[in-house]
Structures are given as C-alpha cells and as structure tokens.
Amino acid sequence: MADLAVTVGQINDQQHLLVYERFLADPQPAARWVLAGSKKLARIHPDWRPFAGPLSPASVRHALVILNALFAWLTEAGYLAGNPLALARRRRAPSRPRITRYLSHELWATVKETVEAMPVGTERERLHAARCRWVLTVLYLGGLRASEVTGTAMGAFFCRRDGSGVERWWLEVSGKGNKVRLVPASDELIAELARYRRAHGLAPTPQPGEARPLVLPVIGRETGREGRDKALSRGALHLILKEVFAMAAARLRARGSEWEGQAAVLASASAHWLRHTAGSHMTDQQVDLRFVRDNFGHASIATTSGYLHSEEDARHEATQERHRIGWTSKT
What we know:
This protein is mainly α. The protein contains 13 helices and three strands. It folds into two domains: 91 residues, no CATH class; 218 residues, Intergrase catalytic core (hpI Integrase, Chain A), CATH 1.10.443.10.
C-alpha cells in the first residue's frame, strides 16, 4: 500500500477517500501508475509501476479494508480524531427499511392502560389480569427474554447487602448459551412480585430455592410429575402477550381511523419487543450503556466481575432510579 504513494494526510477526509476509491478502479494517469507491458520489473527499474491495470471490485474492497484497519488503529492511538473511511462507507451503504421492533413511550403507556383496565369480576379474570401485569413487569423491568421468563423459578430472586449495608434484590437468570447473569431487581419489581404472589395467596417474598415458576398458572393449575406448578410454555406466554397487544391495538382504533397505523404496530408486537422496548427506554433515561449491556447479557461477564461489588451496586442503583414501569394503580 505504501507503493501507491498515498499518505494518511492526503486521504484524511471523506472526499479524498471517494477520489481514492475511484482511482483504484482506474489509476490515472496510466503512464505514471500502470505498467506498460506484462513483464514484471524490479522496483528499482525506471519503468516499474505499482499497478498492472485497474483493480477488480474485490481488490478495491480489500484495499479499503486495509485502510480501514489503518485508520482504526490511528484513531485508537490518538493520532486521528475519527476514522473517515468508516464514516464514508456508512454514508454510501444502501439504506434498508428500518424495522421498529420496540414500543414508543406513548404506545407503551397504552399497553399499561389496557392491562390496568382488564376486568377482575371473577376469580379467573382477577388472576389473569394479575398475570398479564406481572408478565409485562418482569419482561420490561428485567429486560428478560421469553425463554428466561419461562425457564426461571421464583427462588432465583435473592437479596444481599452492599458495602453500605443497603439490601439489594437480584434475579439470577440463565440466558443464551446457558450463561448466568444477575439482573437488578429494583424496589418496584420486588413490590410487583409481592403483589403478584399475594394475588395467589402466597407470602410476598419467595423462599431461597423456591421452585415455583416465575409465572404461575391461573385456576385449574397444571402440575408436573413432582406435584409442583408447571412452568408456562413459551407458546402460552406468546399467546398472553398477543392478547394484551391486540386489546391495546383495539383501544387505539377506538380513538379513530388516524390511529390505525399505531394500532398495527401494537398488533404485531411480541415478547422480544418488550426486551427492545426496555433497552430503548433505559437508554432514553441515560442509564449507563455498560449497565444496560450487563443487565441484558449482551456480553459475557468476565471472571473478575465477582469482585467488582461497587460496580454492581452502581448498576443496581442506576437501574432502580431511572428505569421504572410506573403502574398507576398500586393495589
């Protein structure tokens, strides 16, 4: 690449990069850059040239990959403020239809209003409404995947004291690849857990190692071979959420035809949308991205993280202060 006689300073902006890319595809003036014959010459020969002809599209891409790595290193080392090649390539990338797989704050408010307005006249209705509220709560406040909700027991909640003697609740979940992570259980989440358990006549907080599933069945409980409540399947969880989203969509359509587009968005939502919604809303509230990453399990937790208690406490505090579900009814 040094033989192409292009210095970092000469191509340290997007316009120069575009010119350089076109140059690679057709080096001009040819007399200066392109070898006149097919015979290879030594570099010290006066007729030696760096090109045998225009580069193929694959060779052009390869040259830009090399330059991108060079600029990335220079940026990381502090010699450049940014990588101009990365920006130029992003600007030229073909735009793709953006898939909005999360709910805006307004649509999320509609979903909560819908659940709070669910009928509770019968025992089945009461328990179903409590279950819908709890499912939304744990998916949103915990940022959990559907499989993590259906595969976690109540006993996965636990409490420990930090260095200042403050009690903090956590939820231990097993995510993708069976990687275990700790999710901050805010005071709001623990209050909703207590509310949900009381609806089933249970003590407000689970016992250590309690095997009850995170989402309990309603009347007509199914039990497994050991007589315990059978965990909700992912399919059943999906149906519960689709029902909620369908009711919320109908609520929007009742406002008028101008809400049809937003109603269609709600009707297409799924459990994973709530995970994306939680992450989006957390970043909107300026929760540290490192904390969001660890809450959601987007990166593996290093072995040494077990010693970083102060960082874990900061993650818990930031999550509790800035990421809330804010149900209107408290009882």
